[in-house]
Specification:
single chain; heme; metal-binding; Cytochrome_c4-like; signal; Cytochrome_c_Oxidase_Subunit
Length: about 210
Amino acid sequence: MKKLALALSVLAAMSSTAMAEGNAEAGKTKALVCSACHGMDGNSMIDMYPKLAGQHAHYLEKQLHDFQSAAKSGGKEGRMDPIMGGMAMPLSQQDIEDVAAFYASQAVQAIEVQDVPALGKQLYTGGDMSRGVTACMACHGPDGKGADLAGFPSLTGQHANYIKIQLTKFRTKARANDLNGMMQDIAGKLTDADIEALSKYIAGLK
């Protein structure tokens, strides 16, 4: 809870800070190379790759910077991914802002999810205080849209398999570029059944 309170305080600090904005039209052209995995409009058809459409621009910028940092440091910093590291390395700051602006301007396509376990809704909306699991909606909102300035990504319409992969990575600390280690802390308390249920519930958010 202390980590959550600290992270939420970032929102107030950042809200008065002017942030650069990219050019979505320029980003559309620059993002063509990304379309094989993420789709022409950011709605990936391959469930192991994330949908980028409708994602907050600042969050996308951070991830691209983190991929660059990991590639430069051999994984000691940032977010390590052999594919994305190679894709992100040649990008300039302007490229990153433009690509992020393009994807942020696109509409994410909703997913119809069947047989969502009740456990998924329970954990997302209420958490599990007996295990110290904070409700996901505390940061990502009831509809999964997150909070741009606070750095919490939108989860709406995301592939269940991608969510499952990322929660598992946070749990094992294979991914460690989350704000104040919040996701590692929460995911570390989740079981396989929890992750499966949450992934399906989140994927169905509209």
